[in-house]
Amino acid sequence: MQPIPLRTTVIGSYPFPSWLEFAAAHLDRFGPADVAELQDDATVVAMTDQIMSGLDVITDGEQSRLDFNLSFYGFIEGIDLEAAPPRRFGPPAHDQRGKHKVVGELQAPRGLGAVEEFKRLQRLSPPPEAKGPTLKASVPGPYTLAGRLLPNAQYRDRWALTEALLPLVRKELEDLVAAGCRELTVDEPSMSCYAHKEDPKRFVEIFNRTVEPIVGKCRLSTHLCFGNYKARAVGPRRYAPMFPAFLDMSLDEIHVEMASREFAEIEIIAQIARRRDVAVGIIDVKSYYIETPADVADRVRLCLKHAPADRLSFAPDCGLSQTARWAAKQKLVNMVAGVGRVRKELGL
Length: 348
Description:
Layout: E1 7-8, H1 18-24, H2 32-53, E2 57-58, E3 77-80, E4 100-107, H3 114-124, E5 134-135, E6 137-140, H4 142-146, E7 149-150, H5 158-178, E8 183-187, H6 189-194, H7 200-211, E9 219-224, E10 253-257, H8 268-273, E11 277-283, H9 293-304, E12 312-316, H10 325-346
Parallel strand pairs: 1-12, 2-5, 4-7, 6-8, 8-9, 9-10, 10-11, 11-12
Antiparallel strand pairs: 3-4
């Protein structure tokens, strides 16, 4: 059950401030202390925006990452990082993200960087006695990470790459829990994008082996969406191929993307809620229409027709990194306000 009925949360990423975008393009002009200051300041900005919106759960906005998962490859030994994307011009699409060559055994002796991110969030957030929002970390799963690596003679396909990455991700999850993280999302959007043509039970088995050491030691969730690079989806936008198989994932909560899909398949949350908590994406991160509190309240009421309040939380459809900050801020404010209206109606 949800710690707070109709809880408000986010997935992980948040837009970079404009000055951080500029700095990231000129990092050669900064020293290590300057970069550390940039990371701290950007985390404070993202954290403050979320706290001011009234969210129950916040993240560091992934401000020290290049993207949802791109920075993780910089921590992995045995790969030759791609220098430039294969297609640079024209309409944005996923082929503007190239793949990295695998040149040796995949290892991460320094970890994947998420622990340092979480410790920074802990250090900069309000002290525990202030009873501020819950702090959450998010880490991409091994199947999703494998998608940007090129198979070779040692790792012959994506499945082999996934198996090599799995212990690296599992160790990072264990270290996050040891560092005090009590709310953790393992993002596997590639699983939701490819469930229509791959065995969903195989995905579940991979996920469960990845999270096995931390089950019961934190509140664990996964985020299932259809891609959001430059606000573009990449997979067939249907949840039917995933269920009921994905209900066997060892976790507390499953997040589903609904707003950008006009709440198609909303009935799936009833199926999820019978066994797991469900986080519903009720804010469209692909649209610059700013949902009003009344819009949000109507969407919450729709969800309540399918699942009870103590099983529901609400979030944007996906991470907010591809949405301009001015829009992301107001969308979160209105999301919290709309959910608050329904909480008040229900006397929560």
